[in-house]
Structures are given as C-alpha cells and as structure tokens.
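Pasting as-is:
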Amino acid sequence: MSSEKQVKENILRDLKRFERGDLVESAIALFRTLGYGTDKRVSLDQPTAASFLNSFNGDGVLKPEKARVDEWQSVDLLFQLTKDKIVESDQLGIQFNDVKVDNTIIESYLFFGIRLRGESYSRSKLADITREANKLFQMPVMLVFQHGKTVTLSVINRRLSRRDSSIDVLEKVTLVKDIAVANPHRAHVEILADLSLEQLYKTHKVSNFVELHRSWQKTLDSSELNKRFFKEVSNWYFWATQQVMFPDGADKNQAVRNATSVIRLITRLIFVWFLKEKGMVSDRLFDRAQLSQLIGLENVESSTY
C-alpha cells in the first residue's frame, strides 16, 4: 500500500509524462498508479480513427459526425480491466464478484485513449464522443482525451434496460476536465487520488464493478465536490478565526472582528483565484517564493500587501 502523499506524487509524475507526447504509455502509467494496471493489452492494428471504426463499428452504431471522428488525431485501446486483474494486483484483499446490482451488471471495463486535434473542447463535445464510443461495447468504456496541453478523463453511467435486459441504457457522462499536464492543479490531483482503487475501497468497500463504477460517479459528482469544497473552506474558517488578529477597526469586539475579516479574506481569495484561472492574474501571486519578493512577507509592518 502506498501512502496518500506518495500516490499524489506519483500522479504528478505520471501527468507530466503526457508532455512527452506518448498518450498510451502515459495513460497506462497513470492508471497503474491508481491501482487499475494490467500488463495484458491488445493494441489496434493502427492507432487511427479508421482502424477503430473498422474494428468496432461494423454495424454503423457510432455516428462519426457526432463522435467528431475527423478530429481524432490518434486512438488506441489502453487495456481491458477484469476482476481477475484487480484481485491479482490488489494488496487490500478485495474480493471482486460478478453480480447484478439494481438491474445492472458489469463484468469488465475498457480504457481507450484519444488524442484530439483541437486545443480545447466543451463538456458537451467530449460527452458526445464518450456516448458514441460507449454505444459500441457491452461494457463501460473510460476515455482519456489529450487535447492541447490538457488531459480529460471521461466515464459514462450505464444500466440494463428495464424493457430489454440485452440492451444497456447510457446515462450521465462525468468528466475530470482540462487537467493541465505541465502544472496540474492541486484539486485535480486530489480528485485523481480519490479515484484510486485503494481509496475507493476504503471509502465505499467496493466488491464488484457496479459498485466501483458508482463510486467513481459519486467521487466525480459536482455536488459531492462542492460539498467537499465548502466543508474544507468551513473548517479552515473556524481554524483561522482562532489564529488571526486584526487591528481595531469599526468593531471593537475581537471575535466579531476576526470572523468578519476572515470571511472577507476568503471571498476575496476565491475571487482572485477565479481571476487567476481565467489568466487575468499571474501565477506568481500564488508562489510563496516569488510572492515574498513582490510584496515582502518577512516584515508585516512594512509589507506592501
């Protein structure tokens, strides 16, 4: 078992590998770090959209225009994950089984990597590609997109049709979108760490692919991420109000003054972070070493901050 810190360091290392241009090996290394590695894989004859369509779209189920196939620079099958591979490589003693849960059964997972020609893509466009690709298979397909200087992971929820058990119904697509491989955001690294098999087993006690799939969905769900964010902000707020000291101002009550000032500080930091994400504020303001040169952190009295 790896420590949480080690897992995050390995995730950072693996994400930076994407800069070298080898999508397949980089993606496989990342999934291996997350606990989903396998040495057995079958590549396409050629890593091209034409080869992909010839291999899997004989019935014309996938609509090329909807899947934006003309924008696929390359595509390849990374690997197929089965319960045997999870049990074989697992150190947690997970007992995986093939069972139907709430009219859903998943016996394996496919992982594909697609390099797109464009620099950036909307959620809806990536969701369309994910949905079209999943129409071709009777098992869920997780896609790793590389576009521009970023990587996106995409997974779709699916269940057996209530009217025809031989048909899957494709539902919501969930994305970990626009991960900057050169300088990954801390939040993205933490989300990926939360998707590791070890962490999901600790949190959800997964014992089959249906539970694994749902734990992925729950981990990536925007409402869950929002709850986590606000909980962390709340915890920091209560901690900070006991640590800070603001000069006397309009309010002479120190507790009230600290609470009000910390709230103002949080809202302004969030706003500045938003501006940073939009490229309107320099990253240097969030680098402590560079920040100390800009505003002088050593002497509080003389600081220009």
